[in-house]
Amino acid sequence: MTTTTTTHKSEADVVLIGAGIMSATLGLLLKELQPNLKIEIFERLDVAAAESSDAWNNAGTGHAAFCELNYTPEKSDGTIDTSKAVKIVEAFEVSRQFWAYLVEKGLLNNPENFIKSIPHMSFVWGEKNTKYLKKRYDALQQFHLFKEMEYTEDAGRIKEWAPLIMEGRKGAKKVAATSMRFGTDVNFGALTRSIFRYLETLDGVNLHFNHEVRKLKKYDDGTWRVKVKELESGTKKRVKAKFVFIGAGGGSLLLLEKANIPEGEGFGGFPVSGQWLKCTNEALIAKHQAKVYGKAAVGAPPMSVPHIDTRMIDGKKALLFGPYAGFSTKFLKNGSYFDLAKSIQLDNIKPMLGAGISNIPLTKYLIEQVFQSSEDRMRALKEYLPNAKKEDWVLENAGQRVQVIKKDKNGKGILEFGTEVVNASDGSLAVLLGASPGASTAVSIMLDLIGRCFKEELASPEWQAKLKEMIPSYGQSLNANPQLANEIRHKTGVILKLKD
User: Does the keyword Oxidoreductase apply (predicted)?
Assistant: First the structure.
């Protein structure tokens, strides 16, 4: 007897692939802007935010460029490039405004479950690094959103800010630090799951777990056929969608290739894995209250910038150090070892080889990281916590990232360490590639995507008015408007229950 498999067919205005912070943010923005939209969300795992958005998998939470030194590189002439830091801090303020709107309107409850006040610090030692940090501080003081940053070379003052990093520190090495009390810790796993819980209460929104998108094909009328398989039952589904967003973290590249849009040609990916040292000593955890970032090793990817990091995870205070980088051919923590091989195509072989040749220091760095011993990891930790003891720390696996490789204007490959939005020219499909700073700037990234893919709707008075309601600074620079910046920071801080 022959059995036939029935394919369930449906239609949607929007299909979101991946149940992470990006899909959650885009889905909620679009639903607020146009409540009658029908949205279908597909996630291959059995829970939301289990990959890059999860707190244990995220290498940095609450990125606002206050302490991340890789966002302010020193140029060849000795000056500090502040452009990326300024862009990121503006973007993080947009995220705060959107979250505050959601809390104020009752769409999200208990903001303390996903955001907490925590100072952001940079810490360096040695004459050269101290000079760099002072130049960085001076350069950032030109911008209002960094005005509250403090700088010191006084070891006693640094000990007040973060006692553990100074205890047991010997020798005459010069030290310096900056501190921004306005920093926050954000649990993007908790935030993402809260947003999806709300979205599921709305008419026209369906969230499907254990569903894997297998194929994407564009119809002649500009809509998309999305083929999906329910992993537990094997049931096949086919959704016709007007707009598709691929926000599948490391898995986005493979889906972009399946979409086969001209704009996606030449893109490749370089996977980077990570690990944490997690503190198990409650006394040490209680004693440290800051995110302290240092300088990355030569060739290190941004997700590997060393930091000793106070976090709130599942309602409990945690202390992490790392992440230690590594290499895996997986594109997702729950991916396949064949992901890298499957991503290689004729159109991206040359860019990937070119990026590999021009990033020999990165390759060397990752090889060294892979072969690190526990003693090597402890030596790195002791640079930040001189009195650290091996018995107080355990090794935990962190997340998986895929750094973007793309063609430059000469057709050669370059490795990008930020996020990249790729969209079809008609706006019917968009893909988010890359990693840092990612989650912290999700709202700005998704607003940019909406500007590319929903141009006509965005120009309407209704959408413009709603965006200004959700994000009071929409269309304005907070660095250029100190009074507005102060008002918004105070208001969002009160709504989100943050310390002023």
Answer: yes
Per the CB < 8 A criterion, the answer to whether 194 and 120 are in contact is no
Query: What's the rounded Cα separation, in Å, for the pair 236 and 7?
Result: 5
What does the CA dihedral 273, 277, 278, 279 come to, rounded to 10 degrees? Answer: -170
Within a domain: residue 500? no
Domain count, the chain: 1
**Distances from the Cα of 469 to the Cα of 160, 341, 495, angstroms:** 40, 46, 15
Q: Which residues pair with 236 in a beta bridge?
A: 7, 229
Residue with structure tokens 């107080």?
392
Neighbours of 38 (CB within 10 A): 16
Rounded percentage of the chain residues whose pLDDT exceeds 70:
91
SS3 state of residue 335: coil
pLDDT digits (tens, 9 = 90+) for 388-421: 999 999 998 887 777 777 777 776 777 676 788 9
Tell the residue number behind the tokens 């892979």, with chain if given: 370
The tokens for 407 are: 């063609």
DSSP letter at 69 equals G
CA–CA distance, 91 with 437 (Å, rounded to integer): 10
Dihedral class, residue 126 (left if φ above 0, else alpha if ψ from -120 to 50, else beta): left
Which three-class secondary structure state does DSSP give residue 13?
A: strand
Taking residue 176's Cβ as centre, other Cβ atoms within 10 Å add up to: 24
Domain assignment present for residue 122? The answer is yes
The CATH number of the domain holding residue 62 is 3.50.50.60
Q: Which residue in 131, 151, 152, 128 sits closest to 140, CA to CA?
A: 151
Residue 429 CB-half CA count within 13 A? 26
* Residue pointed to by tokens 């910046």: 485
Residues near 37 by Cβ (< 8 Å), separated by ≥ 6? 13, 14, 30, 31, 204
Which of helix, strand or coil describes residue 394? strand
Task: Record the tokens describing residue 367, joined without a space.
Answer: 């090889």
Instruction: Find the helix or strand (DSSP H, E) in which 118 lies.
Output: none
In-domain check, residue 55: yes
Determine contact, residues 253/17, Cβ cutoff 8 Å.
no
Interatomic CA distance for residues 334 and 260, integer angstroms: 24
Strands 7-17, 39-42: parallel, antiparallel or unpaired by DSSP? parallel
For the entire predicted model, the pTM comes to 0.92
Give the closest residue to 72 by CA, choosing from 88, 90, 53: 88
Q: Residue 284's closest CA among 384, 404, 373, 185? A: 384
Q: Could you read off the pLDDT of 420-446 as tens digits, one per residue?
A: 899 999 999 999 987 667 889 999 999
| Beta bridge pairs of residue 291 | 120, 309
Evaluate whether residue 155 is within a structural domain.
yes
Distance between CA atoms of 19 and 23, rounded to whole angstroms?
6
Euclidean distance between CA atoms 376 and 365, whole angstroms: 14
